[in-house]
Amino acid sequence: MFVKRFLLPLMVSSAPLLCQQTMAGEAFIMPEVGRTEIKFKPDVVLPGFDTEVLGGAVGFVAGYKFDSNFFVGASHSFSSNDSFFETFDHYDLREFGFTAGYALHISEHFRIVPAVGFNSYTIDFDEGRLFNPGEEDSREIDGEDFYWRINVEIPFTELIQMNFAYIDGDYDFGDTSSLRVGLKLSF
């Protein structure tokens, strides 16, 4: 509750103050795809559900990078394990968050971008239909927590960059790690 009421608004409202040039910079959008591995805590999954799963991930980040190389952004992502028509046990993880970081220009064609963020998430567990004699069980968990990410950007032009990201979070339901690739478009 403290994080949601006080810390998050403080982070968002102080971001422009951290940059001397609040109106100089560029907006960007960055769609991403990749894979997410989740190591669930045993007490949160349904009985018989694997505690380690691998699934696909899609995400989208929109933000603003100031001339000082500091950036702020909002993100939305969705992860789900491979399930053939809900035959097997599966999960769906939806995240909406805010992130802030700094772009380190190592060279003209290589950037490292570390960032921290705050996510609000919902994860659904659903029991599969195969080998399940009764009604399918399900569970939903909601929460908020911090995460971190590191991006490697390879600029093609001044406005288009290839992005490789590693995203890691330690949530109430378990640990997540995601490898993603995306295209960052600046304007």
Counted by DSSP, the helix tally is 1
Secondary structure category: mainly beta
Strand order in the largest sheet: 1-2-3-4-6-7-8-9
Order of helices and strands: HEEEEEEEEE
The CA-CA distance between the termini, in Å, is 36 Å
Oligomer: single chain
CATH topology: Porin
- Strand segment tally: 9
Summarize the biggest pleated sheet. Answer: 8 strands, antiparallel, barrel
How many domains, in number, for the residues? 1
Strand content: over 45%
User: C-alpha Rg, in Å?
Assistant: 18 Å
The helicity comes to under 10%
Q: Which CATH architecture?
A: Beta Barrel
Keywords:
eight-stranded antiparallel barrel; 9% helix; Porin; 64% strand; single chain; 187 residues; elongated; mainly beta
Question: How would you describe the overall organization of this protein?
Answer:
The chain is about 10% helix and about 65% strand. The model is unreliable at about 15-20 (pLDDT under 50). The protein has one helix at about 1-20; strands at about 25-40, 50-65, 70-80, 90-100, 105, 110-125, 140-155, 160-170, 175-185. The chain contains one helix and nine strands, in the order αβββββββββ. The chain has one domain (about 1-185): Porin (Beta Barrel), CATH 2.40.160.20. The chain starts with a helix and ends with a strand. It has an eight-stranded antiparallel barrel with strand order 1-2-3-4-6-7-8-9. It is mostly beta strands and about 190 residues long. It is elongated and about 60 Å long.
